[in-house]
Amino acid sequence: MMGMTTDSVIHALIGGVLIGAAVSVLLLGSGRIAGISGLFGSLVTGRATPVALWFIVGLLAAPWLASFAGFWTRPDFLADPVWPKLVFAGLLVGIGTNIGTGCTSGHGICGIANLSPRSLTATLIFMGVAALVVALGFGGLA
Amino acid sequence: MRLVPLVAGLLFGAGMLVSGMADPHKVLAFLDVTRAWDPSLAFVMAAALAIALPAFAYARRHPRTLIGAQPIVLPPRSPLTPQLLVGATLFGIGWGLSGLCPGPVLVVASGGSLGAIVFVLAMAIGMRLASRCAPRRASKRAPQASDGDAACG
To answer: What is the pLDDT of residues B68-125, one digit of tens each?
Structure first.
């Protein structure tokens, strides 16, 4: 557990509270599940709703507001990636979240918070598979 | 009420930035359980669930939104399907290869990272391909074969 520090845990907790608040606001304010693959997917597959559109606008505005406010320097975490691997992973994430009807937010946060056995199963699978991919040495785009 | 989803999106994006989820190296360190495991991101999920659990419990009992009394749409309880298992597996492979999932990568792409922008484009293409090949689950098995079926051979 060498990577974990008190700071990283505090950031994780504050960030998690913000994500939980976002999910709760969209649920109780707009009546929708804050699953990013579902909301973004509805925009790119031609089933957009105003709620999905405005949520994604807010999501995309966040790094700009944070950088104007001086909290975020917009670092490029993906400088000089292995491009074919990046594209392959992107395709898999797109196909998998569409077929599996959710991602880390939709299944991992919303679905589990809604006590859905399907979402718990999906979350255990994608986390387990992702951990296996990393354990086998295939993790990372550098 | 476009303000509600806009605020929710902003909060969600801020959560990605503050939590460390936006950094794929951090995510890969979380997934790297057999070596230099950094379990910090488990606290993201724990904190998010602590807030979201009561919200969903409320929504199950009061199926109307607090603003405007619109219906709250909760997914129906359906059994496990092969699609769910296959989809979660494919997503897990992509997530493990890259350390990127849809929420964080959209935020980083908006920040101007070319790598993230290309990933988002590939992800969008993947979503379109999958939604054409698997005719709408929501449309309760429409009897006619859509042209999307033919496109997938």
So the answer is: 889 998 998 889 999 999 999 999 999 999 999 999 999 999 999 999 999 999 999 9
Chain B 6-25, CB below 8 Å of chain A: which residues? 6-25
Domain regions of chain B by residue span: 3-151
Nearest CA in chain B to A41: B127
Give CB contacts under 8 A, 24+ apart, made by A118-121. Answer: A118/B77, A118/B78, A118/B79, A118/B80, A118/B84, A121/B80, A121/B84, A121/B85, A121/B88
Instruction: Say yes or no for a CB contact (<8 Å) between A87 and B119.
Output: yes
**Dihedral through CA A30, CA B128, CA A16, CA B23, nearest 10?**
-150
ipTM for the predicted complex comes to 0.96
